[in-house]
């Protein structure tokens, strides 16, 4: 059975007994995660290449460093939250004359990467960390910006069991659930598989609602049937793509994103890479990736991924 953790109440104030955390990547996800660690008494030093992200971090009580290498000096845990696997690998090894994080960190530092990247890149990052005398955990997250702010993220973890236990307290603070999925790269593998299901199911749910409209069904009638029948899924019952049946879904806020279309397009490209590298005879995954790439490119990048229904509706002559 997978190991799971549940988040306790956060505490406030510095605690010298807690590990020092270097947090690199203070954007929409990383910033709130770092804030929650500070509120729980962790000593956090942050860094981001975007000056505005540094300003926001300082406004929320996160001290910042002048460079990535300076951030990790003396850190017990180096937590990265980057846009891509290449960013992770470049940061670890150094790029453009800047020293790499692996060389700058003290021996046996824990490298905890919470980015969503290719499985092969996660395994390469782990190999680099281990070869440099460090420890490595990959732990991509699910829950979006709302989950990052509320400390209710789910972490999908690839690590040795003893390293998972070491970083459990951090997961306790930043999320409500962490699942040890296997060895290095397994966290990314779980994230890719989960979001493949999510992307395909949202397209299917959206197509069904547009079909229902064409056939004269109300949104509520279709929801009442499908949500209690074999069509039930998260894309329907939690992130319903039409306003009304689920009042908290982004469809009720003109698709203000909980999970943006650009991010779904990115995650499906990662799934497509994994499908190709493993030789899986997939048809729905590649098609879903193509659909979300087009959605993001045609104005849906900043909208919730459930906004795909508007694209389907437009192309259906409605």
Number of strands: 8
Please give the radius of gyration in angstroms.
Answer: 20 Å
The structure class reads alpha/beta
Strand content bin: 5-15%
Mean pLDDT: 93
Main sheet record: 5 strands, parallel
Low-confidence stretches: 1-12
Could you say which overall geometry the principal axes of the C-alpha atoms support? Answer: elongated
Helix fraction, binned, reads 40-55%
What does the secondary structure layout of this molecule look like, with pairings?
Layout: E1 21-24, H1 30-39, E2 44-47, H2 51-59, H3 68-72, E3 77-80, H4 85-93, H5 101-104, E4 110-113, H6 119-131, E5 135-138, E6 141-142, H7 144-150, E7 153-158, H8 161-174, E8 175-182, H9 186-214, H10 219-226, H11 234-237, H12 261-278, H13 284-300, H14 308-315
Parallel strand pairs: 1-2, 1-3, 3-4, 4-5, 7-8
Antiparallel strand pairs: 6-7
Helix pairs in contact: 1-7, 4-6, 9-12, 9-13, 9-14, 12-13
Fold and architecture overview:
A five-stranded parallel sheet has the order 2-1-3-4-5, with helices on both faces. It has a three-stranded mixed sheet with strand order 6-7-8. Helix content is 49%, strand content 11%. It has helices spanning 30-39, 51-59, 68-72, 85-93, 101-104, 119-131, 144-150, 161-174, 186-214, 219-226, 234-237, 261-278, 284-300, 308-315; strands at 21-24, 44-47, 77-80, 110-113, 135-138, 141-142, 153-158, 175-182. The protein is built from 14 helices and eight strands. Helix 9 crosses helix 12 (261-278) and helix 12 packs antiparallel against helix 13. The N and C termini lie far apart (48 Å).
